[in-house]
Amino acid sequence: MSVMTLTEATPERTEPSPLAGEREMLEGWLDYHRETLAQKCSGLDGKQLKEASVPPSDLTLLGLVRHMAEVERGWFRNRLADERAAPIYFTDADPDGDFHAGETDTWEEAHTTWRAEIAHARELAAPHSLDALGAGPPSRDTGDPFTLRWIYTHMIEEYARHNGHADLLRERIDGATGD
């Protein structure tokens, strides 16, 4: 099998300018990491996206996209805006349901849902300053509300961590590598 780099298969992502202001930088890095996950999934078929390729883990690329749709929803709809939006994929019976894609679950549905959550997150964040306090539940650890700055930073961390997982999954599936 020849090794393909992801940049050969998909367009480049855009890093934020090193001279960007704080908000532009945070939003830029969050978008960069969102696009990294999309890039890790590009060019694969439904079976490959559901492939748990690093046993004994059952983690899949499709599961990561579904999880990140839940994370976008949880932090922007529920913590920032207090919309109290219901979970999309997980339930009390299956708290990791976002990771457990079934036979009928598709990339098209997961991708559309994830992109819709991203679009809604942008709309919710747009009118707020970085210091704005979330209207939703506070930190369980400290009781403090979350600022939009904290949410952005956490989202960048969340994507970066899961993009590392996606790197390993993708390389195992078809040998494609890239950052």
Folded structure, characterized:
This protein has 179 residues and is mainly alpha-helical. It has a single domain, classed as dinb family like domain (Four Helix Bundle (Hemerythrin (Met), subunit A), Up-down Bundle), CATH 1.20.120.450. 53% of the residues lie in helices and 0% in strands. The protein has six helices and no strands. α4 packs parallel to α5. The longest helix is centred in the C-terminal third of the chain and has 27 residues. The protein is globular, with a radius of gyration of 17 Å. The N terminus is likely disordered.
Morphology? globular
Number of domains: 1
Helix-strand category: mainly alpha
The name of the CATH superfamily reads dinb family like domain
Helix-strand pattern: HHHHHH
Uncertain stretches:
1-9
The number of distinct β-strands equals 0
Task: Provide a brief overview of the structure.
This protein has helices at 6-9, 22-41, 46-49, 61-80, 107-125, 148-174. With 179 residues, the chain is mostly helical.
Walk me through the topology.
Blueprint: H1 6-9, H2 22-41, H3 46-49, H4 61-80, H5 107-125, H6 148-174
Helix pairs in contact: 2-4, 2-6, 4-5, 4-6
